[in-house]
Amino acid sequence: MSFDLIIRGGRAILPGGEQVADIGVRDGRIATISDLTNASATTNIDATGKLVLPGCIDPHTHMGIPIRDTWSADDFASGSKAAAFGGTTTILDFTVQKADQSLRSALDERLELAQGKCHVDYGIHVNITDQPHKRLHEIAPLVDAGFNSFKVFTTYKEAGMMLPWPSLAPVLAEIDAADGLLMMHAEEDEIVTQLTARHLDAGHTAPIFHARSRSVDAEAHAIERAALIAGDIGARLYIVHLSSKAGLEAALRARAHGVDILIETCPHYLLLDESCYLRPNGHWWITTPPLRMEEDVDALWRAVENGDIDAIGTDHCPFTVAQKDRYHGAFDKTPNGIPGVENRFPLLYSYGVTTGRISLTRLVELLSTNVARIFGIDHRKGSLAVGQDADIVVWDPAGEMLVSAENQLGNADWTPYEGLTQRGSLTATVLRGQILVHNGQWHGEDSFGDLITTR
Ligand code: URP
Ligand code: ZN
Ligand code: ZN
Fold it and tell me: By alpha-carbon position, which residue is closest to atom 5 of ligand 1?
């Protein structure tokens, strides 16, 4: 028996639980998970004493998107390389729909930016931000073409991105009928607009007023309102980047009433809180929804632990210090978004698994298995099983290091996680059998990433 690659003797996180096993890879797929002591391979990775898990899938990244008067600092090339160094083998990004542009044309533009540049596999969610009523007939053909996830915003009116509430029912009904999934950025714009105006009128432009203007009530109210509509239609709804206890409770109330609601949160809502806005460069942490209070962080961790939260995405949307500093910290002008694509597995392993909060199996569900299932790519991704793409992460649990801007790979020249402790380090990231990263070095064939569509 001969293989292209054998990962030998690691503690593999398999669908049935953890097991010491060898993983044999042939033609980019997992060919066997068994004892391969007597088998040979072109390449071997010794994973003795290390953790072996399915490649992580980030359901929420923004590579090179326009925000306010600038662009997020990573493109598909830089952001995807950073992702690979953090154990992520697939990113799911979003289209940017221009005024009067068809959904298909926006998708084609985005695919063009990713093709031949992305170092990990990628999928694209379709944003519906302009004239939703004119786009309804475009939804089913996109689902048929393998793009089944759509996203709307209940805020960002000033940027022309907001879905007016009366449009939600027809959009959701159309997506549901086509067997697609609606993702929602849930913040009630009216509340945000009023609070923002109140703080600006009072001359309050400091970063903490970002949190005060985008209240937890704004998130909870939007979720409640959307869930009522989803419940009426009987459609599934995916809430992106849930940030607050109040928002969580609104989603769980809807779920208790039978609404099929899925919840995503992000590492920054689990690892950071609004005290970041009081730091000397507090405006760097401006992201939307804002960082919250300790009680929100605790509630989200409990939901991660007990299974109420379905997925964790990064909402990676980095800006450099120069971009963040341009408006001298004014909360209403600073571009919103923070980096994180390379920190998701390392930090959630460190602060979730090694602290005993969650098992490694649960972390794998949140970062890979559930994401693949929710977005319809589980025929290829999301678990260590024979026939799946050989997307594999080997993690050495020994040792620790401090996260610092100096050891980050993305284009942001700072990290929101500066000073946090990472326990363990990445030994290897493998994408479809190709070693991308090994012992801290890039080994990958450049731009090996492929478009992944639903089956
Ligand atoms: O502030 C953020 N999160 N920027 C990216 C766009 C979004 O709302 O996810
Ligand atoms: Zn958002
Ligand atoms: Zn986002």
Answer: 337
237: which 2 tokens?
């709804």
CB 229 within 8 A of CB 257: no
Residue nearest to atom 9 of ligand 1 (CA): 315
CA nearest neighbour of 283 among 340, 343, 211 = 211
Residue nearest to atom 2 of ligand 1 (CA): 337
- Burial group, residue 134, by CB count within 10 angstroms (0-12, 13-18, 19+): exposed
Please report, as a single letter, which amino acid is at residue 308.
D
CA distance 271 to 279: 16
Closest ligand to residue 184's CA:
2
pLDDT per position as a tens digit, 187-215: 999 999 999 999 999 999 999 999 999 99
Amino acid at 293: M
> Do the Cβ atoms of 338 and 320 come closer than 8 Å?
no
Residue owning tokens 């929101």? 416
> Ligand 1 pocket: which residues have CB below 6 Å?
62, 185, 287-288, 315, 317, 336-337
Report pLDDT digits (tens) over 312-323.
999 999 999 999
Cis peptide before 289 (omega within 30 of 0): yes
Confidence of residue 445 (pLDDT cuts 50, 70, 90): confident
